[in-house]
Amino acid sequence: MILNITAFWAVMLFSCSNPDAVIRAMSTEDTLSGVIADSVVFFRSDSGRVNLELHTPRMIRMDDNQDIMEFPLGFDVFMYDKNGQKTIELHADCGKSYGKTQMIEALGNVIVQNYGSEETMYSDKLFWYQKQKMIYTRSHVKIVTADKQIEADSLVSTEDFSEYTMYSGSAILDVNEED
Length: 179
Known about the structure:
Elements: H1 2-15, H2 20-27, E1 34-46, E2 49-62, E3 68-71, E4 75-80, E5 86-92, E6 94-98, E7 103-114, E8 119-129, E9 134-137, E10 141-144, E11 148-152, E12 154-158, E13 164-167, E14 170-173
Antiparallel strand pairs: 1-2, 2-3, 2-4, 3-6, 4-5, 5-7, 6-7, 7-8, 8-9, 8-10, 9-12, 10-11, 11-14, 12-13
């Protein structure tokens, strides 16, 4: 019995001590280089109201000074007005979000649907500058409505498509012969 109690205290005494290397390893920063997340839904709100919603099947965030998130399997962004109504929908096959500059790069089959003006924009590449609330592309772009189709080599627009300028373009318009 005395031998068992002595052995118990000896084990307890030596098991409570941690080598310095173990303590240092436990206190160092995380060594993960990034995070990969699947089936991501991200919300951005202002004053308790959701104004942006992002869906992506895969998000990769690298742990670096650039604060870059990649969406290699595509993404969908939905923008809402102050009444919670969907105003803009953006789809792309892949893209990147640059956190420091607040810029989103959308690549491949980029489609922007404006529910207010009932316009749809198609392009292969698009840059969305969130701080300036501007959209820009130097790729072929096409805007389609019920009565017109405009194509151009580049575009600069407000993020809600209320104002835009297209360069080196052409248009197909429905003209009412009675007018």
